[in-house]
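Q: Sequence in, structure out?
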Amino acid sequence: MSTLMLDAEALYLELLKGVRALLKPDTRLVGITSGGAWLAERLQADLQLPGKPGVISSAMHRDDFSKRGMVSGGGGQTALAFDVNGADIILLDDVLYTGRTIRAVVNELFDFGRPAAVKLAVLVDRGSRELPIHPDFAAARVALPTTQKLELARSDAGAFSFNVEG
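A: Exactly. Output:
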């Protein structure tokens, strides 16, 4: 059995480069709770973008809401301090897997208005999509057994790491 070793800080630097390449003058960052929101917060500062990044939750639009409820998988509140109508948005997530979370947050985003464009940037794309969703940028692509769970963790000092379960 091999151990997956991913350097979250090194991947963050790759994500920073990728997001910088996707930026337009008025692009808004929106992070999916919680890992994507952490990434958006740090990217906002490192890219010296004005204001605060948006935070978006998948909870209300999940197709498995009856099983997961509000607590599991992004139960935080959506907070978008800008007009979504006509906005150029980069949606950020830590780990892209089935695509169901992305589908849910895009539905949530459209509850707030109609953006001009939405691009997706992720730290890790682990494949095995169940929906036709593809990132515009992925810092890494890894293959994991379906029994394993990969999630981003953040220390009190703000350093990123990964938790692998299963």
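Residues 68 and 81 are 27 Å apart (CA to CA).
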